[in-house]
Amino acid sequence: MAKKIVNTSGKRKTAIARATVQKGKGLIRINKKPVEIYEPEIAKWKILEPIRLAEKHIDKVNSDVNVAGGGFMSQANAVRTAIARGLVEFTADPSLKLAFLDHDRSLLVNDSRRKESKKPLGRGARKKRQKSYR
Predict the structure, then answer these.
(1) CATH class belonging to 5-105
(2) pLDDT computed for residue 3 by the predictor
């Protein structure tokens, strides 16, 4: 193991997750809840992806994640990015980084897509007020 404590973050839309990875027994907590009882189920599966890929490293580290903002799926994506980055930085294992990148690049890279800005004469980014000539 390279370091004692690693702090990382992950972002998706407006959700921001901050993860602390340290030496431990494989406990992963999200907002002080164990990942095993995290709801909804589909978000839990998304969060467990980097954990399943890093099977041999996960039982040596504890990960504590705080996440805020966005919806439940954006939070799940932010959490998985934060956990994956933390594992790569904590273990300093290049093969783990390659495994994450081969599986899904968004495990290590924040999603840069943002909301398109509202335009004049419209109700949003694209929708416009209707014109009537007749």
Answers:
(1) alpha beta
(2) 54
